Amino acid sequence: MEIDYKAVITGDIINSTSYDLNTRKLIRELLMTEISSKLKNSFGKELIPLPIDVFRGDSWQLIINNPSISLRVCLFIRCLLKIKLTSNKINTRMSIGFGNASVPEEKVSLGDGDAYIFSGKGLDSIGNNRINLIIKFGINDLNSIKSVNYCVSSLPSILSLIDFISSNWTYKQSMAILGKLQNKTLIEISKDWFGSSINSATVTRHLSKAGWESIFESLNFFEKLLNN
Predict the structure, then answer these.
(1) Which residues lie across from 134 on neighbouring strands?
(2) Residue 169: which residues within 8 A CB-CB, separation 6 or more?
(3) 60/39 Cα distance (integer angstroms)
(4) Among 81, 71, 2, 1, which residue's Cα sits nearest to residue 34?
(5) Does the predicted TM-score (pTM) go above 0.70?
(6) Residues in Cβ contact with 151 at an 8 Å cutoff, skipping those fewer than 6 apart
(7) Residue 6 contacts residue 100 (beta carbons within 8 Å)
(8) Closest by Cα among 57, 56, 38 to 48
(9) Which pLDDT score, from 0 to 100, does residue 81 have?
């Protein structure tokens, strides 16, 4: 895909109205501050130019300069929500849109372009479906991906499976997966755990239960496909 293309992720918190005002405020602050900071530190300002923007109470948006990392970013955000808000089992719907997009100077939601349109329409299309992670792009974008159409058409199915697996991650599994999404070693992940060291074998066990090998293969396929 041409580097001029962007990815916009539009999301909202599932069943947000069932949480009290303090919890909803905590979710908004977490997205805009800590999660945004960790995204910038992990992927760099060149790829994540602006922090997550929250609007309409429970909706949020993020722009990414390299679409190939968009799925990794989605899982990164889901892991952090599960880690930071584990008592409430918070989850988020997410729609990835690809296309031309203007990057605003202040807030993500002030931007415009195809990536925004596809991302917003994608989130609206989820409705009451059980799938909470989808991808949308225009017909012209298929010409930017130098792969056969059946590879491109497989992306929604891959995301559906990833969504099902990641939605069921536990707190400890999310901790282990988050480390892997940052390309950390087992030793590095174990040292990060609760501020103290745990056995690397324990990390491996949590990764296995979280289906990391399948996630890893799917991420590789996604990222190589969009980098062609």
Answers:
(1) 95
(2) 78, 79, 82, 177, 210
(3) 15
(4) 81
(5) yes
(6) 225
(7) yes
(8) 38
(9) 94
Please give the full DSSP string across the chain, using - where no structure is assigned.
--TT-EEEEEEEETTGGGS-HHHHHHHHHIIIIIIHHHHHHHH-TTT--S--EEETTTEEEEEESSGGGHHHHHHHHHHHHHHHTGGGT--EEEEEEEE--B--SS-GGG-BSHHHHHHHHHHHHHTT-S--EEEE--HHHHTTS-S-HHHHHTHHHHHHHHHHHHHT--HHHHHHHHHHHTT--HHHHHHHGGGS---HHHHHHHHHHTTHHHHHHHHHHHHHHHH-
Cα gap 53→132, rounded to integer Å? 19
Per-residue pLDDT of the chain (228 residues; tens, 9 = 90+): 334 789 999 999 988 888 888 989 999 999 999 999 999 999 999 999 999 999 887 899 999 999 999 999 999 999 999 999 876 678 899 999 998 898 888 899 899 999 999 999 999 988 766 789 999 876 555 555 555 454 667 888 899 999 999 999 999 999 999 999 999 999 888 888 766 667 889 999 999 999 999 999 999 999 988 886
Q: Which two tokens stand for residue 136?
A: 């949308």
* pLDDT tens-digit map of 108-161: 989 999 999 999 999 998 876 678 999 987 655 555 555 545 466 788 889 999
Residue whose structure tokens are 């991302």 = 119
